[in-house]
Amino acid sequence: MAKALLGYVGGSDPRLLAEMRRLQQRVQDLESELVRIQAENDALTAAASHDQLLESIDVPQAEPALT
């Protein structure tokens, strides 16, 4: 069974191992990028909700300053 999984008796192909390492590194890079983008999105969402809160305050006209 192990021979069938390896494909041949000689062991793992170095090219296959290198490709697997490259793909694992790529997955790690994409996961890091995803975490960064999610954090940036959360910050933008918080800023947008803060801006909407300020815009929701109804002030028809600015009141004159006391002199």
Briefly summarize what is shown:
The chain has 67 residues and is mainly alpha-helical. It contains two helices and no strands.
Describe how the helices and strands are arranged:
Elements: H1 2-6, H2 14-56
Folded structure, characterized:
This protein has two helices and no strands. Helices cover 72% and strands 0% of the residues. With 67 residues, it is mainly α. The model has no long low-confidence stretch (mean pLDDT 79).
Helical segment count:
2
> Radius of gyration, rounded?
28 Å
The total strand number stands at 0
Overall pLDDT metric: 79
Strand percentage lies at under 5%
Low-confidence stretches: none
- The ordered H/E elements are HH
* Class from secondary-structure proportions: mainly alpha
Report the helical percentage: over 70%
Task: Sketch the major β-sheet.
Answer: none
Coarse shape? rod-shaped
Give the distance, in angstroms, between the N- and C-terminal Cα atoms. 92 Å
